[in-house]
Structure formats: structure tokens, C-alpha cells
Design a protein that fits this description.
Blueprint: E1 6-8, H1 9-21, H2 26-32, E2 46-48, H3 49-63, H4 68-80, H5 85-91, H6 96-106, E3 114-120, E4 124-131, H7 140-157, E5 166-168, H8 178-184, E6 187-189, E7 195-200, H9 201-204, H10 213-231, H11 236-249, H12 256-262, H13 267-276, H14 281-296, H15 304-310, H16 316-327, H17 331-342
Helix pairs in contact: 1-4, 2-3, 4-7, 5-6, 5-10, 11-14, 12-13, 15-16
Length: about 350
């Protein structure tokens, strides 16, 4: 069973409006990207990340805007601040810190193609993003749109009382960063390991003066309901696959006890439900690990040893045996053949 990342349809609508301002037709861009234009009118709340990224890449090429990501990030923040449920919850948190935690907790409502992570110590809080497959680099314009949008949102909900201590980009510095400096108004670092915002603990602990606890309490149950509907589809194999996928995306090793507990079942009860659907936990786990392994092996910057660790194998030899069982070939041979075919 293939679990594919998705993004909120709102992102596509904001992108369409952004392109219209630039005199570009989203329907023509969809056609040029090889995407059926019916994706624009379907009633679905979500769109698969792959076609969205294809549309984005085509739009970026046609726009001829070297700061496409920054400009889209500003429009995205402005749109979300007009009524997005996640941003509305953030605006009604007691502190900036609790708003950032809500952002991480409910980010799946926006998308699960890119996932936010957070670490903190006594001096600072660092918020960064990863693709759903860790180790895969986020392209420059996507990264800049994420960093710009969150910076604008944090400024808005704090009434411009906070600013990042520094902003880190994993890509190299563009030739001209005047617009970056004007937007972020802080120290900018390029060629960094992560795309990240660093916020001081003082700013993190700042109160949000216009917050309404009553409004937050009214919004969170709706957010929980939407998240539950997205994360837990109808069939038990889908529910289990989705839970395994989320654990792998967070860098955790799924096991039947953890997954069954997250689904409020005993492991025996869960296994019985899967048996009725003619599958097992191990089969679903292997399928998702196989899909992740095939994706990792296409990235020349990730070693086979690292892939084994990311997929929860205790050592590389165990991953080698599993991969040979899944595909009939070794990871090294598959990686070599993939790069030869690409040349």
C-alpha cells in the first residue's frame, strides 16, 4: 500500500492567485506540467504533493522571478492570516512558544510533504523543516517560501514584537540577497545543514496579547477532527500504513505495540483486524520501508548505511538482506543501476 504525501488544496488556490497577479494562467501551467487541469476544480480538500510540486516547478520557470519563493511566502502568510484554522489557533495561544508548538502539532493540516521539527535549550529555539523522507534536500524556492511565511506569521501574531535571531538556508547564497535582508531583518546564513529559523528564548516566551482562550478552545476540537479524518482513513490497513508512515517520517522505528497503542487497540486486536483484511503488520511495514528505501537510493548524498539507520535496521547487513528479499537485488547494485540509467 502506497502512502503518498499531500498538501492542502488551499496552497494550490494561493499559488493560482499569486500567478494571476503575475499575469500567468494556472490552467496553462498545469497543462505544461502534464497535470490534468481538473485538479483545480475537484472538491477534495487535499492534493497529492507530487503533482503540486510539478505545478510549482513549472510556475517557477515561467514566472522568471529569482525570488519566487519569498514572494509566494508573503502571499501565503497574508492568505492564512485571513482565516486559516491553524494560524487562527496560533494567534489565540497564550505565548509565541505555545503558538510554535501548535504549528508543529497541527502542521499536517497544511501538508505532510514537508514536516516541521523543533529543538530548544536555555538560549534559543530552532525550528526547521524536512521532506517526509529525511535527508532529501528542500529546493531553494520551497525553503524560502516556508521560512518567509512563518516569519511573517510570527510577526503578525506578536504584533511585530519578535524577529528571528538568525535564518539558515541549506542552499548557497543567491547573487543578490538585498530582498532577503529586507524581509528577514536578521542574520542570514547559507550552505547550512538545515533550513531553519532560530528564535531567542525571550521571544519564544513572549505573550500574545490579543489571544482569546475561548476562541482557541472552540477551534482546537475542529482541528483535531480534521487531523483525525486525514490521518486515519477507513480501512485498517490504511490506518496502520498511515501510522507507520508518520512514525518513520519522525525518525522513529514503528512496532506493532506502538502503532496499536496509537490506534487505541491492543496489539492482538489490531493483528486480528489486519488478518481479516488478508495482510499483516509486518507486510505493511516492509512495503513502506521498501518504498522509502527506493526513494533514498535515488539520492546520491545518502549512504546505504544511513538509509539502513533511517529505516530502523540495526545494521546495514540486515537492510541488505531485506532489500534483496524485496527486490531481488542488492541496495548497492540498485543505486549503481539507477545512476547509470540517469546518465
Amino acid at each position: 500500500m502506497v502512502i503518498k504525501p499531500t498538501v492542502s488544496k488551499t496552497l494550490l488556490h494561493v499559488l493560482a492567485a499569486f500567478l494571476e497577479k503575475k499575469g500567468l494562467d494556472i490552467q496553462k501551467i498545469c497543462t505544461a506540467a502534464g497535470i490534468d487541469v481538473s485538479v483545480l476544480t475537484k472538491d477534495d480538500d487535499r492534493i497529492a504533493a507530487e503533482p503540486f510540486l510539478q505545478i510549482w516547478d513549472q510556475a517557477e520557470r515561467q514566472a522568471g522571478d529569482d525570488n519566487f519563493g519569498l514572494h509566494f511566502g508573503r502571499d501565503l502568510a497574508a492568505d492564512y492570516l485571513r482565516g486559516n484554522i491553524l494560524i487562527s489557533m496560533m494567534a489565540n495561544c497564550a505565548t509565541v512558544g505555545s503558538a510554535v508548538k501548535i504549528f508543529c502539532k497541527y502542521h499536517l493540516l497544511m501538508e505532510d510533504a514537508v514536516l516541521p521539527k523543533m529543538t530548544m535549550d536555555d538560549q534559543a529555539v530552532i525550528l526547521w523543516w524536512e521532506f517526509f523522507i529525511p535527508g532529501v534536500k528542500i529546493p531553494r524556492q520551497h525553503a524560502e517560501s516556508l521560512l518567509c511565511a512563518l516569519t511573517e506569521i510570527l510577526r503578525a501574531i506578536s504584533e511585530n514584537r519578535i524577529n528571528p535571531k538568525q535564518v539558515c538556508f541549506s542552499h548557497s547564497s543567491p547573487p543578490d540577497i538585498k530582498e532577503h535582508q529586507a524581509i528577514f531583518k536578521t542574520r542570514l546564513l547559507f550552505d547550512q545543514p538545515k533550513n531553519a529559523l532560530e528564535i531567542s528564548r525571550e521571544a519564544f516566551d513572549q505573550p500574545i496579547f490579543l489571544a482569546s482562550r475561548e476562541l482557541f478552545d472552540a477551534l482546537e476540537p475542529l482541528a483535531q477532527k480534521r487531523l483525525h479524518q486525514m490521518v486515519f482513513p477507513d480501512s485498517w490497513p490504511e490506518k496502520v500504513s498511515r501510522e507507520i508512515y508518520l512514525l518513520l517520517a519522525r525518525g522513529e522505528v514503528p512496532d506493532v505495540e506502538t502503532v496499536s497503542g496509537n490506534l487505541a487497540l491492543s496489539s492482538r486486536n489490531l493483528q486480528m483486524k489486519l488478518q481479516k483484511e488478508k495482510t499483516t503488520f509486518q507486510q505493511l511495514f516492509d512495503q513502506l520501508r521498501k518504498e522509502a528505501a527506493l526513494a533514498y537510493l535515488k539520492d546520491p548524498e545518502i549512504s546505504i548505511c544511513d538509509i539502513a539507520l533511517l529505516l530502523g535496521f540495526s545494521e546495514q547487513s540486515a537492510f541488505n538482506h531485506a532489500f534483496k528479499r524485496w527486490t531481488g537485488t542488492s541496495p548497492r547494485r540498485y543505486k549503481t543501476d539507477t545512476f547509470l540509467q540517469a546518465k
